Structures are given as C-alpha cells and as structure tokens.
Input
Amino acid sequence: MKQNAIYPKVALDMFVVQLTWALGFLGVMLLVHIGKIIASTFGDYEVDSYFNVVFIAANIFMFVVGILCVNFLPHYVSNGVTRKDYFKGALIGALGLSVALPVIASIGSLLSKVILNLFEKITIKEADINSVITDIETDSNIIGNIVDSVVQSFIVPPYIDPTSNFVLAIAIVSLNIFIYFLVGWLIGVAFYRLGTLGGLLFIVIGLALIIVKDALLRLILNLPLPPKLAFIESLSNSIGGIIIVAIILLALFGIRSLSKNMTVKL
Output
C-alpha cells in the first residue's frame, strides 16, 4: 500500500505559519500607512498607496523569512519528515506566500483608496518608484557601487503600477519576493551547514544573484537601468528571461544540495 505524500502537509503548515507572520507584517505596514495619512492632514501633502508602502518593505520581510526557513527543518526531521519532503513543502509554501502577500496588499490598497476618496484633503501620490534608480549617481569607488546596488535592489526593485496593469504588477512583486525568499533560504542553510565563513560567502553570492535579477527584470520590462549596469542593455529579453530562470534554479540547487545530507541539531 502506497503511503500518502507528506510534503503537501508540510507545505500547508509552513504556509499558514509564514502567512501569520506576513499578516503581522502587513498590519505594521498598515499602521505606518495610517500614520502617514494622519501626518498628511497637518502638512497638506500626498501619501503613498498602501500597496507601495508594502512593496518597499516586502523584499526585506521575505528575505528574513527565507533565512528563518531553515529553522523548520529540525522540527520536521524530529517528526520523521525527510529532508526532501521538507524541501518540497517549504518551496510550495514559499510560492503560495509570494502570491498571497501582494494580493492581500492590493486588496488593502483598494480599500484604503476608497476610504481616502471620501476625504478631499487627502490624495494618493502617483509614485514613480523606478525613476529613483536613474537619480542615483555612479560612485567611482567599487565598494560604494556594490553597496549602492544592494541597497537599490532591496528598496527599489523593478516596479509596475497596479493601476496600469494589475496582473503584471502582482506577478512582478510575487517573482521579486519569491527570489528574495530563496536567497534568504540559501543563506540560512549555508550558515547552518557551513558555519560563519560559509554563510558569509553565500551572502555575497546571494546578493550578487539579486542584483543581476533586478537588472535583467528591468531590461525585460523596459524599465530604467542603474547607470552602472547600463551595459546589460546589450542583452535580448529572451536571454534575460533565461538567466532569471537560471538564477532561480541555481538557488534551488544550492538549497537542496546543502540541506540534502545536513546534520540536524535536534
């Protein structure tokens, strides 16, 4: 008699737990949004939409959740779940979370706009997040350029206005935060398996993957590229898409390879 697969239950368990974290995160972002709305009534200035408030912070949130993902492994192994089922379950849970978070944020943003439209004094700012990239000057210092690229990738990743193309906007945010989750997961597993030096090495690798992903996604979406990465414009959209898929597969391969025979501290 064939035994039922375990990984769907792992996926559901991890999705529910991480969604609970996400709801807490969205709640904090809502409080920030409300605070800005209240402040705008005294300063008479525009406020960002709730979607944009979440958009800017979601990458960091998913990156941290990805790092914490490795902490589920000892629990599942101690309960007889294989490392393979953990990997598959965590991956499916991450995919679900990557879709759920922007969808919930967009619903919250829509409700926020409906409410704010009742108050003539408060207006939603039409943010041009992508223009921030072109406004950043290129640093002659190599280290400075790298730091700038990392900061840009976390704070101003490729952005599509949901009012112009809702489906594409949700898809881009989902792809972005899913890759941030994978990179965080890869780094978390590396620290667990390889120790501090190995973890630090994978931080460098992970951040490099994020920077390349951002630049290629901007290329495909015809969005402004950072001046220091303008050379990427020579690539075709199809090549850019293939490299993004390769980045995802590379991250998954690294996670699976490091966790496959990893000694778990129960």
